[in-house]
Amino acid sequence: MKTLIYDYSIILHVAAGILSLIFGLIAMTTRKKGGKLHNRSGLIFYWSMALIFVTTVLFVILYPTEMKYHFFLTIGIVSFYPTFTGKRLLKMKKKMEPKWFDLIATYTMLISGIVMIAYGIYLQMNQPEAMAILFLVFGPFSAIQAWGDLRIHLGKKEIEKMHWFLGHAGKMIGAYSAAVTAFCVNIVPRYMPEGSPMLAYIIVWVLPGVLFGIVSAYTIKKYRRKFNGQKPSLKSKVALA
Question: What are phi and psi of 161, to 5 degrees?
Fold first, then answer.
């Protein structure tokens, strides 16, 4: 019975992963943000990421002692958290009024980040491997992101103009980055040459986050200038050309 549930869950997990990669890209690249294509593809992306998270939790329940599923669970939290909060920001256009479930999501992300850091340190001290380094990379990222959101929820951080748009864009790009990272962690190593150094695997797993981080920073900077009525610099014009 356990094997049957696992097999069907894997099918759903993979199907949701493919849908998230396709429709997430469509949502990000549509020129008209808020249009039908953007909204519908974004909705498919959201529910695909939700299904990925649910099936990941199921994997841990089925095989609670396997470390790879511990890592997949934390990555599932890292990927679904910005998806969830990015969508929630669309409900807070007029005023930041987080509900109780927003706070639960943020605290869950914060705890997950702390656990990843502790797990990474433990593994590094006892059985150093690539997984330990990944925990130590994504752990601080998760904790920092959650802490920033928590400060906003608690009114400790100033809300900028068009916060909902900028936050939505940044978080959804981050969520898509996590989806690509999960794909790289699961698929790419199978096709790498035998005997590849650990550094090569780490680069493959971390590179998507770095690249999409640059894309996110550029996108937010561009729209922030637009909302603040600033003209793009010569450097920005060249980049847009």
Answer: -60, 135
